[in-house]
Design a protein that fits this description.
The chain has 336 residues and is of the alpha/beta class. Helix content is 28%, strand content 27%.
Length: 336
């Protein structure tokens, strides 16, 4: 047993429900690896878990779905058995369920771990793996974009937005993003977007239609939800697609209002997807495929700016700033 610091919750609620605790970590079991965390990613999924929008299997629960660290111990005959030949001291990263990354160390299934390439920092790996797998899912499985397509991304300066901009540009896609400030517009322009629309000053629907000569975009990605999602649908060309991947603007409740089918057709004839990256990653082969593609792109120079780094004990503050739109890019917790 080892004593570890964790940030956990006993009931859903505001950031005050996040409490530090010292817990005993058992030795890793068969097929598991103990990872000593060096960087922990903070994501909107953590907020959705905290407020009860995404239900956790039981409470109390430790939050966090993404982290990087160092291999510290193996359980049973784990070493070298289908895990890519991991060794003690290897730098690794993982993402996905079950939650539990807000901890100084934890036991993780060996087949969920991937080695971090040389030249990629632990912080960058922890800030990008989940977003990279999401980009892979959206572009290869949901929208199936091709070179020459036009894609709209809401919140282009955020962590996922930065990932999508660079990923799409690498595929030869014309990337259009929305941003809330001139500083964020400059950031988006440096991350693969040919156009970044200041949505607080300009009607982004009219501007997207102007930029596409009235045609609309082939694929739109919306992580904001609410009224923004309704407007996003208006930017998509006939027989194009929109993907709703979150509800940052209305995180207290799921966007459960009925969306009339008339918003999708017959006059507009578009498709709306609600893909879950956690469902995507539940298939181990897809998870490792998306993770390997993400790490290869990171090694080749793709990067998401990390706008906020706090200690693990400040997890509540990190979530508060992310939830209030006070960050642009990745948010990282560093174990004490």
């Amino acid at each position: 047993m080892s004593k570890e610091l964790v940030i956990r919750m006993s009931q859903p609620g505001a950031t005050a429900v996040l409490q530090a605790a010292s817990v005993d970590l058992a030795p890793p079991g068969a097929g598991e690896v103990r990872v000593r965390h060096t960087a922990i990613g903070v994501n909107f999924a953590d907020i959705y878990h905290r407020i009860g929008l995404y239900r956790l299997p039981q409470l109390p629960a430790v939050l966090g779905v993404e982290a990087a660290g160092v291999v510290e111990a193996f359980g049973g005959e784990t070493a070298g058995d289908g895990d890519g030949g991991l060794e003690i001291g290897d730098r690794v990263v993982y993402a996905g369920l079950p939650a539990g990354a807000y901890a100084t160390a934890r036991n993780v299934a060996a087949n969920r771990l991937l080695k971090i390439p040389a030249g990629v920092s632990d912080i960058q790996a922890a800030a990008t793996l989940l977003r990279g797998i999401t980009a892979h899912m959206l572009f290869q499985y949901v929208g199936r974009v091709r070179a020459g397509d036009t894609v709209l991304v809401q919140a282009a300066a955020g962590g996922l937005g930065q990932m999508l901009g660079q990923w799409g540009a690498g595929l030869g896609v014309r990337m259009i993003g929305t941003v809330g400030s001139t500083a964020k517009r400059e950031m988006a322009s440096s991350k693969g977007y040919q156009e970044a629309i200041l949505y607080r000053q300009i009607d982004f629907v009219a501007e997207v239609l102007r930029l596409t000569a009235g045609r609309g975009v082939d694929f739109a990605v919306d992580g904001v939800g609410g009224e923004t999602l309704e407007k996003t649908l208006q930017t998509v060309r006939p027989f194009g697609m929109a993907a709703s991947v979150g509800q940052a603007a209305s995180s207290q409740t799921e966007d459960n209002a009925v969306l009339p089918l008339s918003e999708l057709g017959p006059f507009r004839s578009i498709a709306l997807a609600r893909p879950s990256v956690f469902r995507f990653m539940s298939d181990l082969s897809r998870y490792r495929e998306g993770a390997a593609e993400t790490l290869a792109r990171l090694a080749a120079g793709l990067a998401v700016d990390v706008s906020l780094t706090l200690s693990l004990s400040e997890a509540a503050e990190a979530q508060r700033r992310l939830e209030n739109g006070q960050t642009a890019g990745g948010v990282i917790l560093l174990p004490a």
